[in-house]
Amino acid sequence: MTTPLIGVSKSLLKIKELINHVANTCLNVLITGETGVGKEVVAQNLYEESPRTEHNFVKINCAALPETLLESELYGYEKGAFTGAHKKRPGKFQSAHKGVLFLDEIGDMPLSLQSKMLHVLQSGEFSPLGSDQDFKTDVWVIAATNHDLEKRIKQKQFREDLFYRLNIIKIDIPPLRERTEDIPLLVEYYFKLYKSEYPNNPGSKPDEDTMVRLCNYPWPGNVRQLQNCIKKQMVINSWDKVFDEMPAEDSHAIVPDISAHDSVKKGETRNLHPDFANDRISLISEFVDLSTSSEKLLQEISLKKIKKKASDRVEKEVITFVLEKVGWNRSRAAKILKVSYKTLLYKMSEFDINPPSK
Ligand SMILES: Nc1ncnc2c1ncn2[C@@H]1O[C@H](COP(=O)(O)OP(=O)(O)OP(=O)(O)O)[C@@H](O)[C@H]1O
Ligand SMILES: [Mg+2]
User: Fold this and answer.
1) Distance from the CA of 323 to the center of ligand 1, in angstroms?
2) What's the CATH architecture for 304-350?
3) Residue nearest to atom 8 of ligand 1 (CA)
4) Between the CA of residue 295 and those of 281, 290, 349, what are the distances in Å?
5) Domain 176-299, what architecture?
6) CA dist list (Å): 60 to 44, 71, 141, 304, 346
7) Considering every ligand atom, which ligand is closest to the CA of 34?
8) Cys staple from 96: which of 49, 101, 201, 278, with CB 3.0 to 4.6 Å?
9) Model pLDDT for residues 266-308, shown as the tens digit of each residue
10) Domain extents for the chain?
11) Separation of CA 295 and ligand 2 centre (Å)
12) What does CATH list as the number for 10-174?
């Protein structure tokens, strides 16, 4: 069953409106946003609102499969196409015919497969591995990623032409910390949802102070983390314990982008050396890989290197903040930051700071 898109924030209402507008078209959609923000939920809602519901919603995770397997899963194969291909098998493009093909984690699709994907999207035709026959395909392609694809294009990891093909309609889902109005509604929704799952553990809904605390928390793992947090509350019935086990509350306030560390990004608790098992970790983990053994870690820690990384990090955030505040007017930003216009341009290019694409 499709998850309803819960939320009343301006950004979520806009997304709902966009879903209604786009669902009747067959324009390729690219959904972006941090992990756990609801990219898959949006894709499912697009499908549900579309006239394609009599056909399939087919999902493929481009990050989860090795290259050759991903190719055969996408396009299918003929008997004998490769060792182990004992019988003909249809691919996702066939299963999604007249329905929706959801290309999840598209940013991780290997470059070698990106050109074939572009060709299929352009021509509407594909051929299974080992076949010389072309098949027509009518699928609505919805793709999602938590990568910054424009950055990946610059790094030559993603084809620019494929990006433009996919990015006809862009739906960017902001992180939960930027739409805290959605939190009370989501909390209510999950308490209701899990009531039947934990009939003997109803938990306790947050009082006013707890709700404020929930709304102030940065939610690095976004809605998924909030969802798990409610489940946990219902089982252990202690908000204090739930908060104790969450990654540091002030982590986002100190360093705005804490996504650099994968496990922080997923909102998971980690097995760290006890020296770091406190709220210092979220800051330190920005600059040091804490998942290595403590011996290796101590050999590799260098204050000089960390200083440079930390100051670059803060500079980048401050410059971006000011540019956003002045509507990307660079000469105004340079004046505010008290640097020359040239220095600002240099720093923008060094730190890869770009205005949002329209
Ligand atoms: N607005 C929402 N309303 C209800 N549930 C939501 C909403 N957003 C996210 N969720 C729930 O949060 C969880 C994560 O959502 P989803 O899998 O769509 O995120 P995602 O952006 O695809 O994450 P990832 O990048 O890690 O794949 C799911 O259980 C989903 O049901
Ligand atoms: Mg997803």
Assistant:
1) 30
2) Orthogonal Bundle (1.10)
3) 38
4) 17, 11, 36
5) Orthogonal Bundle (1.10)
6) 13, 11, 11, 44, 40
7) 1
8) 101
9) 333 333 344 444 445 555 666 666 555 556 666 667 777 777 7
10) 10-174, 176-299, 304-350
11) 36
12) 3.40.50.300
